[in-house]
């Protein structure tokens, strides 16, 4: 199955040229070459029926990326797509390290939504705060028309498949449907036996997750997920784990190893006996009291107001905008309870996310801005410098008064870097909360 592996971080290189070139040269069956319109560049509606779409989308006759405007004559700014991808590669690979250390399939599915969502914004344009114009890939209602939709989501499927292969006993736990659609109701119980409408087997029955847990029943696979090429299940599992450790372990490991080979004094600040302290941001939000799509962008501010802030990662939730009118309240609605009661009725669902800060903190140690990764140094540093901005899917700022639906807290844990580069980093199950870092800040831990 073809895919675009956008999850590799800096080592994956830039956006492929053939994604952003309007014409390409193809070789025909008779050996001659011909220049044709690149089908991965844009999709033209033929014809565009204005009645099919809403608002500006009813006038734009082809898919656009980072558009120059909202009208018929709007053009794509492909360079902004490429620039945004380069800018976010570090955060993407950092988040992939968090994704693949998930302790359950459900947590993996929850965490993979973050880098998945970033790519929607990176390709389409729209995730930047106060951005005036949005491309087709950003609003989920129109994203499937973007030519890169398949290559993006087959990679998501591939990442799921790698996690399953590395955790052969993992299962999909029962859950409640967060937001309904034409087949499932909001709040409905679902599990691996829930019918996957409208997809039918040859027998005419609908597929279930249980039916397709092994993706090969659908007649495809990926380069790394071919167990028939190995002599045993254990050999296959080891190969998959090595792939994950090599490609998606996150940037912290590489930076730690670089510092291990540097001066002994700096090494001691970061690593002791191949161990270091890992730092994460844990986020929670009330689904009923936030916009259907929202973005929380984290920053480490500088010493002075004139200093550039460091982009420390993004937590985002993407849903079609019509879900704002199905169970959610307006984004400007204030919570009726105090900040201490960061919960709503039993009908509400809690959205969760995890972002790693470790790579950014290592950079600050290297720059002489932070003494070590120990709590005695990191806690006061983050208390002073960690901040965030929250925006809705249309780029508008979510008012400070509406952030009672959000809880942001920082945690730390011990991590061990194994000598074998094909083995994953080992993280302790014991974590330490540091509520003092965000207490008193809107969206932080309630004081």
From TrEMBL:
Documented EC number(s): 1.14.18.1
A GO BP annotation: melanin biosynthetic process
Biased composition (Basic residues): 328-343
Top-level taxon of the source organism: Eukaryota
Cofactor: Cu(2+)
Catalysed reactions listed for this entry: 2 L-dopa + O2 = 2 L-dopaquinone + 2 H2O; L-tyrosine + O2 = L-dopaquinone + H2O
The UniProt record lists the keyword Metal-binding: yes
InterPro entries: Di-copper_centre_dom_sf (IPR008922), Tyrosinase/Hemocyanin (IPR050316), Tyrosinase_C (IPR041640), Tyrosinase_Cu-bd (IPR002227)
Top class in the EC scheme: oxidoreductase
Annotated stretches, region: Disordered: 323-343, 422-447
Keywords: Copper, Melanin biosynthesis, Metal-binding, Monooxygenase, Oxidoreductase
Residue span, Tyrosinase C-terminal domain: 278-410
Family of the protein in this entry: Belongs to the tyrosinase family.
Name the record gives this protein: tyrosinase
Organism whose genome encodes this protein: Neocucurbitaria cava
């Amino acid at each position: 199955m073809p895919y675009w592996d956008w999850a590799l971080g800096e080592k994956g290189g830039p956006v492929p040229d053939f994604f952003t070139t309007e014409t390409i040269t193809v070789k025909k069956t008779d050996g001659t070459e011909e220049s044709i319109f690149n089908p991965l560049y844009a999709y033209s509606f033929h014809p565009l029926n204005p009645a099919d779409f809403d608002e500006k989308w009813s006038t734009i006759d082809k898919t656009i990326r980072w558009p120059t405007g909202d009208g018929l004559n709007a053009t794509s700014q492909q360079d902004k797509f490429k620039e945004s991808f380069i800018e976010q590669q570090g955060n993407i690979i950092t988040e992939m390290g968090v994704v693949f250390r998930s302790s359950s399939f459900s947590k993996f599915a929850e965490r993979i939504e973050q880098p998945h969502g970033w790519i929607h914004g990176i390709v389409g344009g729209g995730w930047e705060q106060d951005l005036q114009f949005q491309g087709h890939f950003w609003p989920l209602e129109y994203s499937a028309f973007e030519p890169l939709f398949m290559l993006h989501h087959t990679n998501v499927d591939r990442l799921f498949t790698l996690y399953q292969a590395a955790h052969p006993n993992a299962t999909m736990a029962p859950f409640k449907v967060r937001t309904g659609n034409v087949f499932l109701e909001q709040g409905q119980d679902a599990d691996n036996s829930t019918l996957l409408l409208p997809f039918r087997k040859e027998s005419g029955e609908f597929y279930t997750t249980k039916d397709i847990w092994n993706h090969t029943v659908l007649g495809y696979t990926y380069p790394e997920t071919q167990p028939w090429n190995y002599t045993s299940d254990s050999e296959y599992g080891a190969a998959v784990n090595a792939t994950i450790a090599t490609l998606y372990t996150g940037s912290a490991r590489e930076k730690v190893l670089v510092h291990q080979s540097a001066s002994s004094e700096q090494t001691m600040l970061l690593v002791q006996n191949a161990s270091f302290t890992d730092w994460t941001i844990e986020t929670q939000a009330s689904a009923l009291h936030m916009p259907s799509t929202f973005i929380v962008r984290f920053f480490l501010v500088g010493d002075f107001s004139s200093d550039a802030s460091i982009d420390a990662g993004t937590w985002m939730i993407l849903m079609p905008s019509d879900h704002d009118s199905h169970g959610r309240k307006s984004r400007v609605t204030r919570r009726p309870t105090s900040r201490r009661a960061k919960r709503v009725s039993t009908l509400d669902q809690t959205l969760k996310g995890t972002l790693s800060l470790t790579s950014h903190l290592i950079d600050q140690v290297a720059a002489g801005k932070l003494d070590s990764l120990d709590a005695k140094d990191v806690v006061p540093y983050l208390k002073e410098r960690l901040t965030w901005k929250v925006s809705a899917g249309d780029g508008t700022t979510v008012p400070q008064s509406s952030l009672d639906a959000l809880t942001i807290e920082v945690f730390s844990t011990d991590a061990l870097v194994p000598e074998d580069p094909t083995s994953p980093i080992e993280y302790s199950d014991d974590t330490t909360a540091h509520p003092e870092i965000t207490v008193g800040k809107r969206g932080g831990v309630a004081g």
